[in-house]
Design goal:
The chain has twelve helices and 25 strands. It starts with 9 loop residues before the first strand and ends with a helix. The protein is about 35% helix and about 25% strand. The strands form six sheets. A seven-stranded mixed sheet has the order 1-2-7-8-9-10-11. It has a six-stranded mixed sheet with strand order 12-13-14-15-16-17, with no helix packed on it. It binds MU-OXO-diiron (FEO).
Length: about 400
């Protein structure tokens, strides 16, 4: 941290302020698993009613900066309660630095968060376990109400609702990895915001869609007035905050658009030629379908997962190598399997020289990943000649008509 840097808190509403960190530099998250082309934010919030409450902290590399910033705003010893909505290090990472100053301050969290925080930091902090519906009086007629959100994104996750100001502190849910200074959803680039929200859902929350559907229904059944959704990454939803809840309901329901996505890798361009001819065939058979073609080895895999998320059908290509397929393609199918996509079809193609296992290997992997296979796939010996290109065109037309 650079000494002497001033900190400017941002007012959310009345006595609630944002005291987090904007991470413009972040390019990878979860180690190297998730690309963050637009950086991220770690949102922490300070509530100053009769009681002073801190909701979540920031990622560990910014811990000292976070505590120093807080100390510019308040005497940290005046913090009455800490709310740890989620134990992952991007939100709890500054707790060790903060708790050195206030070791006995109660930390309100779920029972699972006690396990995750203890497992990561090995500290005997003053944990206060809460469950859905539990309330905490913070004075001036306001309360915090806790809502467990298991698997959104870890078993320990919860949301916290502030009565009076009607703010839902949703933690990871409804967030985006999107660095911004504007803070509120109505002030940022709307295309960026939609794209980053969609990518975040597609890559992080898709495996938990079935849980999310039930949780959204539960939250809505509480009939809470929600004026603001204060996430832990990206913007605070202020303008029509329920728009992101409505999008989540749509995305959680086996979402797809009228899109077919071709994802392949190639060695000597034969499989690339097939990919492009299959795309042409799809376009000829169905001019209304969106067709996209990507070489997986040259593209960002998280962006490709977002494309798969939007697709009704994926067409996967690899040449045969070592009686199998290229590791770029195998790795991407493995990544797709983890997403537990539902209601999507798949087809395969690839060139080969002699043994020709490519389509069979991909068919087995894709079926295991939950895709409904259209057929046995299209494979071509050596480089595609004109007849083979016509076959690939026809295969594209078949795919378009099969979806
Ligand atoms: Fe943003 Fe699951 O942590």
């Amino acid at each position: 941290m650079i000494k002497g840097v001033i900190f400017v808190q941002k007012r959310i509403k009345n006595n609630v302020s944002w005291v987090g960190k904007v991470d413009w530099d972040l390019q990878k998250f979860h180690g190297n698993e998730y690309s963050t082309h637009k950086g991220s934010t770690y949102n922490s919030y300070l509530i100053r009613e009769e009681k002073t409450v801190l909701i979540d902290t920031v990622w560990q590399p910014f811990a000292d900066e976070f505590v120093a910033n807080l100390a510019q705003e308040i005497d940290v010893r005046t913090i009455d309660y800490i709310i740890a909505n989620h134990g992952e290090v991007d939100h709890s990472g500054a707790l060790p630095a903060l708790m050195k100053h206030i070791p006995n301050t109660p930390i309100y969290c779920t029972a699972n968060a006690v396990k995750s925080l203890s497992g990561q930091y090995h500290q005997h902090w003053n944990f206060q376990v809460v469950k859905t519906g539990d309330k905490l009086d913070i004075g001036n007629g306001k309360e915090l109400i806790f809502v467990e959100m298991p698997m959104l994104h870890w078993p320990d996750s919860m949301a916290t609702y502030l009565t009076g100001d009607h703010i839902l502190f949703s933690n990871d849910a409804f967030g985006q990895h999107y660095a911004n200074e504007e803070l509120f959803n109505d002030l940022v680039d709307q295309c960026d915001l939609y794209q980053e929200s969609l990518k975040y859902y597609a890559n992080i929350l898709t495996p938990f869609s079935h849980i999310l559907k039930k949780k959204l229904a539960e939250i809505l059944s509480l009939n809470l007035q929600i004026d603001l959704i204060a996430t832990s990454h990206g913007v605070v939803w202020r303008d029509n905050p329920m728009q992101i809840v409505e999008n989540y309901a749509k995305w959680a329901d086996e979402y797809q658009e009228n899109q077919i996505t071709i994802i392949y890798d190639t060695m000597w361009n034969g499989t690339k030629v097939m990919a492009e001819k299959i795309a042409e065939g799809i376009g000829l058979a169905d001019p209304n379908v969106v067709v996209k073609v990507f070489n997986v080895a040259k593209r960002d895999e998280n962006d490709l997962i977002t494309e798969v998320f939007k697709s009704k059908t994926v067409v996967i290509g690899s040449p045969t190598i070592s009686n199998s397929i290229l590791h770029s393609v195998a790795g991407f199918i493995h990544l797709m399997k983890g997403m537990k996509f539902k209601n999507k079809k798949a087809a395969t193609f690839g060139c080969f020289g002699w043994s020709g296992e490519c389509t069979k290997v991909m068919n087995n992997l894709l079926a295991d990943a939950g895709f409904a296979m259209i057929d046995e796939g299209l494979k071509n010996p050596w480089q595609p000649d004109q007849d083979a290109q016509v076959q690939a065109l026809a295969y594209g037309k078949k795919i378009a008509k099969s979806t």
